[in-house]
């Protein structure tokens, strides 16, 4: 599709389909489109059932790489776009076995705080297994393998990616429900905006700062080593600077190696093998080290004052409940980003590494024009290309790459099919079920929903996600090719961010996004860093030119383009 050309899709099935422009920053490769829908559905579906929610799943489909999803309710026909009439619902609630079971389960899940057991499982078994499995794959050098062994390794990487996608979304509900539950109750009690209430969670998701511990140790070691400081401030090629830092003797070299070893094969942008991993962009790693080594003070949480102020507005009879709900939200908050950072972001990077090795071999024989074209193939096409038994041409793969890099979500429909209907009215449900449905609904809305554009003259408006006012140069990032231009103190202006963006976030003075709500990754990480942020602006990347000086007001939700 040519840039700026509006594309019309047919709905991929019955129901109302919404564009997901928050999790995927551009159309995805066939490899990702082949594995994501089923593994997402498997994981999220298990989590929804475990908590007794009435959403069966989000049905994901990729239209020429563009992601759309449709909400599928338990017991609803595929063509349903809203809730049934009250009398029909009452009959279903009384007679439908799965609906009855879920209504009962929601009360049990809330009463026993089931997310605590899930978080314990994550910490004790799932996360350590993910780290162990991916370090094992990372320790293998695919460039030393013969083609048959490379194919087997690529298959292991694919199976690992499938497993990590499943694990990520199996823990969606425990990561979100306590946060939504706190938000719903606190809004009722205080009337305070969601941005202020979510700000009370700051400091409880250190993982959202990236590899904070490893980066901090590297920065400290560099500050104590004159040779490391000289290397980091040199004007040498970033790849050479990074290699020289890793080769240093003593603590500085060890700390840099530990940091790069942890983040090197994580994607820098997005959730797709079509995006590069950090070691492909050494300038980003060097900039992150520079920013950390020159930082005056590490981000600190400031919870006491805001909590006390907001708590005072809660009616006395509910203050203990407020404290309990806030504690539960804080307890699980880190799970929101950990699922990606230790999971699929890393897995996709490891799969991409194997693909680039195969692509390099095919480029050397003239079968491909460039090694990166290989990632545009579907898995069976990759097998055929490596075996030399067929597969798409270099011209076709290059066309797919252009489509992914040139297609803007502004040029595709926001919805396909009939308009969506509303949720079941809360008063139709038992109290526990109504509470759980409201909590998860608030979270989904705060992640995915972007309001209509509200730009006026030189002011772009969105949702204020993190308070504060900052003036600086706008750095328009449309893709990974732009990452190397980010300098410390820039204002990131982009479509949306994923947890993969954590590598560049230490450099930023403020964050502005087109997509995403108050629980999007950009909003969470901005609060953790304490930098002003405005999300869900819809058209910031169209209205703000690269290099323009802007003022970001994270409380008012406004970005002013300065003269």
Structural summary, described in words:
The protein is α+β, with helices and mostly antiparallel strands. Among the domains are: 207-294, no CATH class; 459-561, Glucose Oxidase, domain 1 (3-Layer(bba) Sandwich), CATH 3.50.30. The protein contains 20 helices and 12 strands. The protein has helices at residues 30-50, 86-95, 97-111, 114-138, 147-170, 172-190, 194-199, 212-223, 226-232, 238-247, 250-263, 282-294, 304-311, 319-332, 335-364, 379-387, 394-406, 431-448, 521-529, 540-543; strands at 17-19, 55-63, 66-73, 415-416, 459-461, 463-466, 469-477, 491-494, 510-513, 533-535, 549-553, 558-561. The strands form 2 sheets. It has an 8-stranded mixed β-sheet. α6 (172-190) packs across α18 (431-448). The longest helix has 30 residues, at 335-364. The protein is globular. It starts with 16 loop residues before the first strand and ends with a strand.
* Annotated CATH homologous superfamily of the domain at 459-561: Phosphohistidine domain
CATH architectural type of the domain at 459-561: 3-Layer(bba) Sandwich
Oligomer: single chain
Radius of gyration: 24 Å
Which blocks of ≥5 consecutive residues have pLDDT under 50?
296-304
Major sheet characteristics:
8 strands, mixed
Mean pLDDT: 90
Shape: globular
What name does CATH use for the topology of the domain at 459-561?
A: Glucose Oxidase, domain 1
CATH class of the domain at 459-561: Alpha Beta
Q: Treating each run of at least 4 consecutive H or I residues as one helix, how many helices?
A: 20
How are the strands of the biggest sheet laid out side by side?
5-12-11-7-8-9-10-6
Helix content: 40-55%
What is the tally of beta strands? Answer: 12
**End-to-end distance:** 35 Å
Strand content: 5-15%
Class by helix and strand content?
Answer: alpha+beta
């Amino acid at each position: 599709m040519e840039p700026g050309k509006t594309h019309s899709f047919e709905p991929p099935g019955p129901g109302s389909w919404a564009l997901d422009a928050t999790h995927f920053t551009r159309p995805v490769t066939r490899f990702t489109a082949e594995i994501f829908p089923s593994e997402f559905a498997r994981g999220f579906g298990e989590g929804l059932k475990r908590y007794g929610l009435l959403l069966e799943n989000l049905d994901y489909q990729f239209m020429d790489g563009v992601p759309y999803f449709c909400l599928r309710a338990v017991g609803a026909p595929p063509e349903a776009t809203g809730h049934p009439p009250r009398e029909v619902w009452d009959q279903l609630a009384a007679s439908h076995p799965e609906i009855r079971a879920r209504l009962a389960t929601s009360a049990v899940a809330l009463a026993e705080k089931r997310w605590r057991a899930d978080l314990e499982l994550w910490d004790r078994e799932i996360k350590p297994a993910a780290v162990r499995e991916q370090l094992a794959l990372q320790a293998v050098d695919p460039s030393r393998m013969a083609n048959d062994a490379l194919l087997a390794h690529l298959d292991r990487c694919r199976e690992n990616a499938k497993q990590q996608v499943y694990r990520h979304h199996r823990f969606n509900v425990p990561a979100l429900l306590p946060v939504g539950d706190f938000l719903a109750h606190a809004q009722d009690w205080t009337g305070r905006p969601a941005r202020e209430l979510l700000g009370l969670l700051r400091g409880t998701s250190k993982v959202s700062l990236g590899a904070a511990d490893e980066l901090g140790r590297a920065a400290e070691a560099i500050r104590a080593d004159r040779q490391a400081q000289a290397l980091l401030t040199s004007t040498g090629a970033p790849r050479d600077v990074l290699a020289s830092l890793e080769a240093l003797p003593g603590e500085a070299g060890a700390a840099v190696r530990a940091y790069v070893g942890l983040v090197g094969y994580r994607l820098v942008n997005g959730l797709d093998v079509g995006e590069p991993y950090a070691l492909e962009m050494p300038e980003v790693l060097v900039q992150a080290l520079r920013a950390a080594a020159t930082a005056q003070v590490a981000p600190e949480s400031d919870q006491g004052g805001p909590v006390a102020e907001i708590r005072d507005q809660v009616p006395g009879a509910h203050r203990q409940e407020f404290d309990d709900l806030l504690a539960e939200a804080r307890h699980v908050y880190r799970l929101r980003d950990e699922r990606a950072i230790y999971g699929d972001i890393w897995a996709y990077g490891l799969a991409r590494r194997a693909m680039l090795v195969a692509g390099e071999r095919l480029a050397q024989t003239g079968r491909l024009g460039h090694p990166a074209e290989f990632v545009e193939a579907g898995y069976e096409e990759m097998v055929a290309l490596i075996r030399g038994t067929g597969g798409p041409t270099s011209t076709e793969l290059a066309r797919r790459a252009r489509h992914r890099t040139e297609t803007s979500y502004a040029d595709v429909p926001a919805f396909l099919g009939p308009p969506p209907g509303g949720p079941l009215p809360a008063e139709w449900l038992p109290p526990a079920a109504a509470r759980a449905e409201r909590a998860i609904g608030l979270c989904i809305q705060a992640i995915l929903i972007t309001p209509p554009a509200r730009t006026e003259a030189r002011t772009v408006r969105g949702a204020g996600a993190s308070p504060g006012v900052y003036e600086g140069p706008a750095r328009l990032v449309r893709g990974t090719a732009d990452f190397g231009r980010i300098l410390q103190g820039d204002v990131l202006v982009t479509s949306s961010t994923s947890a993969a963006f954590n590598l560049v976030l230490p450099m930023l003075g403020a964050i502005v996004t087109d997509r995403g709500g108050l629980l999007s990754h950009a909003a969470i990480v901005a609060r953790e860093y304490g930098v002003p942020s405005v999300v869900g602006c819809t058209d910031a990347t169209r209205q703000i030119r690269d290099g323009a000086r802007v003022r970001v007001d994270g409380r008012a939700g406004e970005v002013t383009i300065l003269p």
